[in-house]
Design goal:
- By secondary structure, the chain is of the alpha+beta class.
- It folds into three domains: about 120 residues, Butyryl-Coa Dehydrogenase, subunit A, domain 1, CATH 1.10.540.10; about 120 residues, Butyryl-CoA Dehydrogenase, subunit A, domain 2; about 130 residues, Butyryl-CoA Dehydrogenase, subunit A, domain 3 (Up-down Bundle), CATH 1.20.140.10.
- The protein is built from twelve helices and ten strands.
- The strands form three sheets. A four-stranded mixed β-sheet has the order 1-4-5-8. Strands 2-3-7-6 form a four-stranded antiparallel β-sheet, with no helix packed on it.
- Helix 8 packs antiparallel against helix 10, helix 10 packs antiparallel against helix 11 and helix 10 runs antiparallel to helix 12.
- The longest helix is centred in the last third of the chain and has 25 residues.
- The radius of gyration is 22 Å and the shape is globular.
- Bound molecules: flavin-adenine dinucleotide.
- The site of flavin-adenine dinucleotide has 22 residues, from strand 1, strand 3, helix 11 and helix 12.
Length: about 400
């Protein structure tokens, strides 16, 4: 087997030579911002190239389309992607949560059927958990799935379905037994095809004016019964496991990244360049004070990331740091975006595409987009509840 060092060096060379710069549209910074066919086609093609070069799913088994190497090999490839600021891996729900779920708990047939298309990006996946009246309160999901022979018949609606208009499959949480003794026992989990009659989507426009998610409607949509994942009535358990992948509390993802992270200290550069009241923002004592606080937060986050790799430091509460990471990173991104606009002062009002915008409106767009990740995958309030209850052992809120 090729050594991790040699593999990493090859990946470094490949990304240096292949990261594209020949596009003239707004590049999505996260998988939740893919709103046009042009963006989707470009990113899908990019994912396929990365996969075919061997830098996605490098550690997944060869028989399911992977490279048969180790996690350390894939990590080295992901580091090279970051270093060369490659575009995001677009099929995030496939590579990040459906894929590892199927790899860990799927049947042999499910693994062979679904995993290769996830890696190549040929099959885009979406997630049907949230409903118009049930988001944080996921256990109350009401979309109905009624067994009829070899099929289930679906009726109801899911909302905020990221990439739902492009997806071939949906990981779907549906109610198969409304009379179950408790709400969780009535739920089942499906690997549902989206290209069946009775499934339709409507785009939802976001704060940024861009698109990225849809509302999905199911009207007597029939899906094969063998798309059930786990047993009927065990959907809650499967959904909770899926959320562990999504929140980074469980590993096994195909690799790459689906949210581009700017260097947390990039804000220092802006503080030097931005002008407030005719002087560099960095000379304003209030701004300096805030900048120091931001740097301390960034350093703490980076230290925590390193700490998570040292087993004896995390053995007592293994899930605590990964769960904290989602909360910390997403809130940090939002707060830094807000601070960036303060640094820009009166010019902060100009957005992408406006002649007088600073730095192409980069910080404005990134600030507005930063709210997405503080809500998707569980809001910050819900993350705090989970950390309190499951990592710190505090009493349950309800
Ligand atoms: C960009 C984006 C992409 C998304 N993509 C998907 C997707 O692909 N698939 C999918 O299924 N969903 C997706 N979502 C939906 C997301 O998971 C939900 O929005 C989220 O779980 C919150 O649910 P809600 O919107 O119904 O808000 P609500 O649950 O109604 O919450 C409203 C407010 O109340 C607070 N709150 C609720 N319950 C509690 C509590 N117990 N304790 C403390 N505070 C509480 C929340 O924190 C929030 O501030 C996406 C959301 C966004 C923003």
């Amino acid at each position: 087997m090729i050594s991790v060092e040699a593999f990493g060096a090859e990946a470094d060379k490949w990304f240096a030579a292949n990261v594209p710069s020949d596009y003239d549209f707004l590049m999505p910074l996260t998988f939740m911002e893919v709103g046009t066919d042009e963006q989707m086609d470009f990113l899908r093609d990019w994912q396929k190239r990365v996969y075919e070069a061997g830098y996605l799913g490098a550690h997944w088994p060869v028989e399911y389309g992977g490279g048969g190497l180790t996690q350390a090999h894939q990590d080295a490839a992901t580091r090279a992607m970051r270093k060369h600021q490659a575009p995001i891996i677009v099929n995030a729900i496939g590579t990040g949560w459906a894929g590892p779920l199927i790899l860990d708990t799927g049947t042999e047939e499910q693994k062979r059927n679904y995993l290769p298309g996830i890696l190549s990006g040929d099959d885009i996946w979406c997630q049907g958990f949230s409903e118009p009246d049930h988001g944080s309160d996921l256990g109350n999901a009401q979309l109905k799935a009624v067994r009829d022979g070899d099929e289930y018949v679906l009726n109801g609606s899911k909302i905020w379905t990221t990439q739902g208009n492009y997806a071939r499959y949906m990981i779907l949480l549906a109610r198969t037994n409304p009379d179950a003794p408790n709400k969780y026992a009535g739920l089942s989990f499906f690997l549902a095809p989206m290209d069946v009659p009775g499934v339709s989507t409507t785009k939802i426009r976001k704060l940024t004016g861009e698109y990225g998610f849809v509302q999905t409607f199911f009207e007597d949509a029939r899906i094969p019964a063998d798309t059930l994942m786990g047993a009927e009535g065990e959907g809650w358990k499967v959904a909770m496991r899926t959320l562990e992948y999504e929140r980074g509390a469980r590993g096994g993802q195909a690799g790459g990244y689906n949210i581009s992270q700017t260097d947390p200290l990039e804000i220092v550069g802006l503080a030097k360049r931005a002008i407030r009241n005719g002087r560099p923002a960095l000379e304003d004592p209030v701004m300096r004070d805030k900048l120091i606080e931001t740097i301390i937060d960034a350093q703490a986050m980076m230290a925590n990331r390193e700490r998570a790799k040292i087993a004896p430091l995390v053995s007592e509460r293994p899930h605590a740091l990964p769960l904290m990471s989602k909360l910390q990173f997403t809130e940090y991104a939002r707060e830094t975006g807000q601070f960036a606009l303060e640094l820009e002062g009166a010019q902060a009002g100009y957005y992408v595409g406006e002649e007088r915008s600073r730095e192409g409106g980069y910080w404005q767009r990134s600030y507005l987009n930063a709210f997405s990740a503080t809500i998707g995958g569980g809001t910050s309030q819900i993350q705090r509840n989970i950390i309190g209850e499951h990592a710190l052992g505090l009493p349950k809120t309800r």
